């Protein structure tokens, strides 16, 4: 398991979600000591935030699909990224 402070910027959504699911499973089973539970929880929080950020970015890109007068997609507009 990576440290909660490990940079997640390069971690793909699917990988982060799979790790988060594994952490939830471990915590639900209750077979982890207190210190390890705290570390798992912190890592889980970091993964959740990362997944939320990636999902919001994907939603923004989808919203940038430009529609023509007929309501059909005519292309995309650049996503304004800070």
What series of H and E elements makes up the topology? Answer: HHEE
Low-pLDDT segments: none
Radius of gyration: 18 Å
How many strands in all? 2
Shape: elongated
Pairing-aware structural class of the strands and helices? mainly alpha
Q: Biggest sheet: strands, sense, closure? A: 2 strands, antiparallel
User: Looking across the biggest beta sheet, what order are the strands in?
Assistant: 1-2
Estimate what percentage of residues fall within beta strands: 5-15%
Fraction in helix: 55-70%
- Average of per-residue pLDDT values: 85
Total count of domains: 1
Distance between the termini: 31 Å
Tally of alpha and pi helices: 2
Give an overview in words.
The protein is mostly helical and 82 residues long. The chain has a two-stranded antiparallel ribbon with strand order 1-2. The radius of gyration is 18 Å and the shape is elongated. It is built from 2 helices and 2 strands. α1 runs antiparallel to α2. The model has no long low-confidence stretch (mean pLDDT 85). The protein has one domain.
């Amino acid at each position: 398991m990576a440290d909660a402070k490990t940079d997640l910027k390069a971690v793909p959504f699917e990988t982060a979600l799979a790790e988060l699911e594994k952490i939830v499973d471990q915590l639900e089973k209750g077979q982890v000591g207190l210190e390890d539970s705290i570390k798992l929880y912190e890592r889980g929080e970091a993964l959740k935030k990362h997944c939320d950020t990636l999902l919001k970015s994907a939603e923004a890109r989808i919203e940038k699909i430009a529609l023509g007068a007929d309501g059909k997609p005519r292309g995309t507009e650049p996503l304004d990224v800070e």
